[in-house]
Structures are given as structure tokens and as C-alpha cells.
Write a structure and sequence with these properties.
Elements lengths: L1 E5 L4 E6 L2 E6 L2 E6 L5 E5 L2 E6 L7 E6 L2 E6 L2 E6 L2 E4 L1
Parallel strand pairs: 1-9
Antiparallel strand pairs: 1-2, 3-4, 3-6, 5-8, 6-7, 7-10, 8-9
């Protein structure tokens, strides 16, 4: 699926991924290919970009909140800020 992560200042990530784990307002959740269309609010916490099925090629960020939209295997994450971890 295609993922784009944006803050008001810059593009954090753009590309094909296996999935993404996000800190939702009411708990963490994961999005994988062919997920149903949705819009959800995000809270403060860790966001993990899973680049492939091996699950070892990941990028983790600390985020402060925002929104995610999923439509036809295109995921847009709009967040206030992101800090790369490890």
C-alpha cells in the first residue's frame, strides 16, 4: 500500500509499505493492505512504519497527534509533529 506522512512543515515519509501501526485516540491500531476506507484521529504515542513482511525493516516515530485517512490502499497520515526514534 502507499503511505504518505505529512506535518505542516515537511514530508516525513512517502512510499510503499507493508503496514503501519498508529496511536489512535482510543487505542493503538494497525493498517495493512486492502484495509476498509476510514478516517481516524490520532493521539500522542509511537507510530511504526512497517516497510516489508520481514517486520525487521521498520521506522518508528514519536507523534503528538493528528489524523489518518485510508482510501483504496492509499494511506495519508497528517500529524502535528514527528520525531524519529532509534
Amino acid at each position: 500500500m502507499n503511505l504518505e506522512i505529512l506535518t505542516p512543515e515537511h514530508k516525513v515519509f512517502s512510499g510503499k509499505v507493508y503496514g503501519i501501526q498508529l496511536p489512535g485516540t482510543f487505542g493503538s491500531f494497525e493498517l495493512l493492505e486492502n484495509h476498509a476506507p476510514m478516517i481516524a484521529s490520532l493521539g500522542k504515542g509511537k507510530m511504526k512504519v512497517i516497510k516489508d513482511k520481514n517486520l525487521s525493516n521498520n521506522e518508528t516515530y514519536e507523534i503528538t497527534g493528528g489524523f489518518v485517512e485510508v482510501i483504496n490502499n492509499n494511506v495519508s497520515v497528517l500529524i502535528e509533529d514527528a520525531t524519529a526514534l532509534g
